[in-house]
Amino acid sequence: MAEATPGLDHALAGDQFLAHGEFAQALDAYAQALEAQPQQVYWRFLAGESLFHLGRYADCVALLQDLDPGNDQTLAIEHALTLGRALQLTGQTTAAEMQLIKAFMLDPGHEEAAYNLGVFYEQAGLPEQAVTFLQAAAQRHPQSVRLHYNLGSSLAQCGQTAAAESALLATLALQPNHIDAHHNLALLCLRQGKLAQGWQHYAWRFNRHAHEGAPAHWVPNTPELPADLHGHTVRVQGEQGIGDELFFMRYLPALQARGAQVHYQLCNTKLAPLLSQPALASLVQTPDTPASIRLLVGDLPLALGGPHAPTCPVAVPLQASAAVRARLQQQYPLLASPRRKLGLAWRAGTTQAQPQGFATQRWLQKSAPLDSLLDVLAALDVEVVVLQRGLQPNEWAQVQARLGADRVLNASTCDQDLNELLGLLSCLDGLVGVSNTNVHLCAGLGIGGDVLVPAPTEFRWQEEGSPSPWFPGFAVHRQTASAPDAGWQAPMAALAASLQARYGVAQRQ
Hints:
The chain has helices at residues 8-19, 23-36, 41-53, 57-64, 73-89, 93-106, 111-123, 127-140, 145-157, 161-174, 179-191, 195-202, 206-211, 242-248, 252-257, 300-303, 322-331, 370-378, 393-403, 418-425, 437-445, 489-503, and strands spanning 233-237, 261-265, 293-296, 341-345, 347-349, 365-367, 383-386, 408-410, 430-433, 449-453, 474-478.
């Protein structure tokens, strides 16, 4: 009787574990199989695949780096894909790119190879190159949901709005409940001013999906509110970041205008002082009756939809405490100076940690070049209040050196108390920099400014034109989408001309 293949039973067990997502057990089984037959290339590859799924990327690279698939093209492609992804996740981007290109070249029609190469370029912050591969791959695989979605995402990052919209619609035609496609399509529509269409897709946003428990076949359900809400108590739940919550608060007066009794529950407790503001004070009252309608604040535009809905309501009017303002002016003499004052921030948004070799998605973080901003401000007859959250010592030193220590105030830590921040902002004549919470607060205070908008644009600042209908007091200066690295030259020149006309040029000694 012929002897069984050494290690085969362990390898077959590994296959079963791998198929069921039991990666630690699969790794143990393949390791035992390889003890019997160390030269078995395919078992070694599957052990590497198990390591990858366990997040042990460096170990995966070490095991697969010198594996030779021989003449087995299928194994060669799978090996290059797994090794390429592991190399990227360990920060070895050049080697990762070579492996993923190798997989693609072995079979340009291979969906997985094209997808992974496109994702590599998108995650490396090179969406233009991602589009090159994903566009052709989506044409070859018209039924591939993930190719159409990633193509739409990459096109959106490149500022190709119409093409991105088409790709995302193709995604939804194949998978109508694709949450990410709805969310990204919402942002595309809203930044084009297609509000009715945009708010419909915005109902699918990520945080609402998570808030409602993420069931397998989740579909949002936003009630359309009647024009007459007398006798109704509407409980509105805040959500998302501070800036988002502030932004959507502008829809709350429309509920009251329809006769509703409104109860508002904050998401961000830092905003608690706002609810004592005259424009919002009625919203903290305990309702007389249980809530008959419950909504997330980001659903208000859709729920209020219809012929009587506000299109772009103004920011909720805010007031700064005169006592706080007076105290701050006494504490910081620069704030009491007759010279006009501009608030400055050049960085905002999410700063999520990314694996080495991965770029932060463009819409998650907003930044403008500090050195160029300082060149613009140095020429003006103004004083500058630095509002940058997370200000670094080298940045503060750079500001002082370029503008002069007597012209600047470091107020980067004044955002911890909203009453303090409102008092500080009320001392300013305007803001300069990227969009952040201060823009929302200044809009409520009636203070305008100049906003530098990175490409692709955030929906509140629209795709083109100035000012935005959401922030009529702010001039918009847009980064050139086709030249993201050099795209600040023209907007900085326009900003300089606008500010010099408004504030005058500083007299040089």
